[in-house]
Amino acid sequence: MPVRRPLRRPAPPADLATLRTLADQALSRTAGAPLVSGNDVRVLRDAAENYPAWTAAMEQAEHSIHVEMYIFHNDAVGRRFVALLAEKARTGVAVRILYDWFGCGLGGMFALFRPAIEAGAEVHAFNPPSIKAALGWVRRNHRKLIVVDSDTAFVAGLCIGREWEGIPERRLEPWRDTGVALKGPVVAEAEASFARSWALVGGRPFDPLPRAHNDPPAGTVSLRLIPTEPFTGNLLRLDLLIASVARKSLWITDAYFIGTGPYLASLIRAARDGVDVRLLLPQASDVGWVVPVSRSLYRPLLEAGVRIFEWNGTMMHAKSAVADGRWCRIGSTNLNVNSWIGNWELDVAIEDESVATTLGEHFTEDLSRSTEIVLANLKSAGRSVTAPLGPQKAHGKRRAARRMLRSVTGVGRSVGAAVTGNRGLETFEATPIALAAGALLTFASVSFYFPRLLAFPVAGLATWIGVTFLAEAWSVWRHR
To answer: pTM value?
Structure first.
């Protein structure tokens, strides 16, 4: 006689609290950062709002100023900030400056920071060339972080230089950029992030100012501070997750957009699922070759319904996103592999409708100064038939040189398309392909007729790498 088994009733649906816990767990594990509540957040737009806020906080500092900055330009703006930091160091404030060796270029070598050092500030360059690692110096500290008195933190896409304030004599408008001022428990996370970078360059250890456990919250905003290091991919995972879970809208602003295949696919699927996906990108760039490379990615996005806009001003340098009017991120990470997994980066992911609304309003205003790209005229390199092209005087006398750099360096994706046939070429890619052909034929001719010219550079490179390997081995043996 068959045995009757009791029917299993379906489990009751999870309540909202449980779903919220699971969502928080997923976001925390994905970003590698906990949700920190009780913070005050102020969105700062362009240098016109960021620089005065930075300056005011530094002027009021009583104990410490920590600056982790990709670029200090050796210009009037860079020297102004260094002078302020030197002044605070002379009054006894502990000033610590961490700048990127590559980002600052020759400025650090030509005494830009000497006034601060002579005033007692501690200054270190991040990851300069070393005999120990042949190519280690290519990894950059791209963060933009300022922490004052363990009380206020600034996270931004802005560096320190005249470009962000504008150069009127060359008719260059200020670069468009975004940052945030933070107060509350998250500042301790920001200072801990700085301390880890400081330790990497051999800076003397320091103790942050103690905070009372019973301090009242600074605000009502919950957020995650996301420090990314090479090969961790913290923000890449988060960007992929947000693109997957956005239900209504996903508005993205980026300065150097070269999305990976999985990320492009996530945007395409979101758009096809009815999400309002918009990209705001630069029409001209200080790294000019990025623009044609970005444009080579437009067609599949546009065909899926993603709307793409190009900024008509001098330079769109912001790195931000806002999803569904309640989640947003702001920081230093660009949407490309180098930024996602190659650099040290720092961003904040904010879960607050008020902050997201502010960022969304800024995005909408920016679109009024942008050109929408449509498929009908993509082959004309992005000049829209639906909006007039704004004034474009981004690079003055250097424009011709930058145009050549765009053509030469942006050839990679065009060559890939020509070789594999995975997509049709756009009209503006003909020039890079022709240049690639010329370069390859020239290389072949030199190889046939002057093989020694190629042998010497190869031998030099092999020698350099061999010496670095020996240096690394010797360092290990010496400390055994």
So the answer is: 0.81
